[in-house]
Amino acid sequence: MKTTRRLSGAFTNGFDRHDMLSCKSPSGAHRKRLRARACGVAIALVGAMSFGASPAESGSRLVIDPKTYIRFTYNDKQAICLIKLYGKESAFNSKAIGNLDSPTKSYVYGIPQLKNPIIKDMDPLEQLNYGFKYIAHRYDGLPCKAWKHWQKRGWH
């Protein structure tokens, strides 16, 4: 049974087929903004549902799994493509360093295997955000385009 409750004149929320809280804009005009807000809400919910001592009391930091973060950011199809791509590129190792076959012997870093060395000192979610920006710039924000490019050429 799907439950829907009215948030405002433009938005509704409810539970989807996986019992996940979702936000929908009837016109579809606000999807990017909703997706970003949904990610923030998801982070807050995970923190609220953690068991034991709070992160502040224990000194630890709450971390979301990179694959889960990708699923919050993209729709199912695009998320699967990006998970496959990053699985092949770095096996989701945030410390991964790759060597490009080029005359300059360039290196690539982190989960998304980007050329910028600053990425190697970032946490996994920051690395993913840089990867999202790269895909937005080069592949129109479509990870499946990046995945197809990787399948043809072995790089993205």
Task: Walk me through this protein's architecture.
- The protein has a 3-stranded antiparallel β-sheet with strand order 1-2-3. It has a two-stranded antiparallel sheet with strand order 4-5.
- The chain contains 6 helices and 5 strands, in the order βββααααββαα.
- It is mostly helical and 156 residues long.
- 46% of the residues lie in helices and 11% in strands.
- A hairpin with a 5-residue loop joins strand 2 and strand 3.
- The protein folds into 2 domains: 62 residues, no CATH class; 88 residues.
Give the termini distance in whole angstroms: 42 Å
Beta fraction of the residues?
5-15%
Order of helices and strands: EEEHHHHEEHH
Give the mean pLDDT. Answer: 76
Per DSSP, the total helix count is: 6
Radius of gyration from the CA trace? 18 Å
Instruction: Please give the domain count.
Output: 2
Strand order of the largest sheet: 1-2-3
Helix content: 40-55%
Estimate the global geometry from the Cα principal axes.
Answer: globular
Counting DSSP E segments of at least 2 residues, the number of strands comes to 5
- Low-confidence segments: 1-27, 50-58
Structural class: mainly alpha
| Sheet with most strands | 3 strands, antiparallel
Short descriptors:
5 strands; 156 residues; two-stranded antiparallel sheet; mainly alpha; three-stranded antiparallel beta sheet; 2 domains; 6 helices; disordered N terminus
Kindly summarize this structure in a few lines.
With 156 residues, the chain is mainly alpha-helical.
Show the helix and strand layout.
Layout: E1 4-6, E2 12-15, E3 21-24, H1 31-49, H2 55-58, H3 66-73, H4 76-90, E4 97-99, E5 107-109, H5 124-138, H6 143-153
Antiparallel strand pairs: 1-2, 2-3, 4-5
